[in-house]
UniProtKB/TrEMBL annotation:
Keywords: Cytoplasm, Hydrolase, RNA-binding, tRNA-binding. Hydrolyzes ribosome-free peptidyl-tRNAs (with 1 or more amino acids incorporated), which drop off the ribosome during protein synthesis, or as a result of ribosome stalling. It comes from Asanoa ishikariensis. It holds the Pfam family Pept_tRNA_hydro. Belongs to the PTH family. The lineage of its organism: Bacteria, Bacillati, Actinomycetota, Actinomycetes, Micromonosporales. This is Peptidyl-tRNA hydrolase.
Length: 195
């Protein structure tokens, strides 16, 4: 493993103002907050269809490359793999931050590898990277109520009730992503998955 390689934190979402507040865009929200925390600004990368921000997590902490793919969710893997190659990042130092239907709203969990649960962004990343063995920060959005189509549900904005907690939860998801990069998935799971 390349000791000097940064962690690639891929916030999954869709580009464009009309998607900005969607449930499916929580990965972008978390990436934006981490960039703000480390004093980094997003700019278009020359080697990938993505906005990228780079910085260090605290004094002597790991280097982070924050990524917001601009290809739309189902093609997120292309920019992720291009940037992993550019920065020489091994899969074990890649963290995908994404919305998760199978976790209740208000819960955030760290995980290493596993399936994609029908998430097109994860499916694209796994296919492009050729492995599922990368870390995930799963932001619970719950299943849609009644018979609502999950595809429509994820492309809707958070409800008024959900928005009351959203800022706190995005903050917590950023904490989890930072913990995964600085202390590892297992540490983050023990610290955050139960609550």
């Amino acid at each position: 493993m390349e000791a000097t390689a940064p962690f690639l934190v891929v916030g999954l979402g869709n580009p464009g103002r009309e998607y900005a507040k969607n449930r499916h865009n929580v990965g972008f929200m978390v990436a934006d907050l981490i960039a703000e925390r480390i004093g980094a600004k997003f700019g278009r990368h020359r080697r990938a269809v993505a906005d990228v921000a780079e910085g260090r997590l605290g004094f002597g902490g790991p280097r982070l490359v924050l990524v917001k793919p601009l290809t739309y969710m189902n093609l997120s893997g292309g920019p992720a793999v291009a940037l992993a190659q550019f920065y020489k990042v091994p899969p074990e130092q890649i963290i995908a931050v994404h919305d998760e239907l199978d976790i209740p709203y208000g819960q955030i969990r760290a995980k290493l590898g596993g399936g994609e649960g029908g998430h097109n962004g994860l499916r694209s990343m796994s296919k492009s990277l050729g492995t599922k063995d990368y870390a995930r920060v799963r932001f619970g959005i719950s299943r849609p109520p009644g018979r609502q189509d999950p595809a429509d549900y994820v492309l809707n904005d958070f409800s008024a009730t959900e928005r009351k907690e959203l800022e706190f939860l995005v903050d917590r998801a950023a904490d989890v992503a930072e913990a995964v990069s600085s202390k590892g998935v297992e540490w983050a799971q023990n610290a955050y998955n139960g609550s």
